[in-house]
Design brief:
Helix content: under 10%
Strand order of the largest sheet: 1-2-3-4-5
Distance between the termini: 44 Å
Low-confidence stretches: none
Strand content: 35-45%
């Protein structure tokens, strides 16, 4: 991973969690070849558990082969709390997390958003 290639390493992205893609607004350019062109995704790996939990990892790589950042995304179902939990951790794309209730009688939803 290369801090010189990003504007703000591990920027707080609040509730944003990307399972694929790249947040180009945070890309400064490749420190190795000075390219500002699109990097590619390599070493994409997705694992899924029987429980529905999912983990995705990949690398953001410049066309010159320089590794800009490693991206990690996870999705978990917490059946005890009846939540779907998402998280993202990447030097380029940032850090984010979110929880969504899957309970039929969710007190957060019952307040209503009108």
């Amino acid at each position: 991973m290369c801090r010189d290639c990003v504007k703000e390493p591990f920027k707080n992205r609040d509730r944003t969690c990307q399972e694929t893609g790249t947040w180009w607004l945070n890309f400064k350019g490749c420190k190795e070849c000075q390219s500002m062109s699109d990097a590619s995704i390599s070493q994409f790996k997705k694992t899924e558990e029987e429980s529905g939990d999912e983990e995705i990892t990949y690398q953001h790589v410049c066309k010159c082969g320089h590794v800009i950042a490693e991206h990690s995304y996870s999705f978990e179902i917490d059946s005890g709390e009846q939540l779907q939990e998402y998280s993202m951790n990447c030097m380029l794309c940032g850090v984010g997390g979110d929880s969504v209730s899957i309970a039929p009688d969710d007190p957060q939803r019952s307040r209503g958003i009108f």
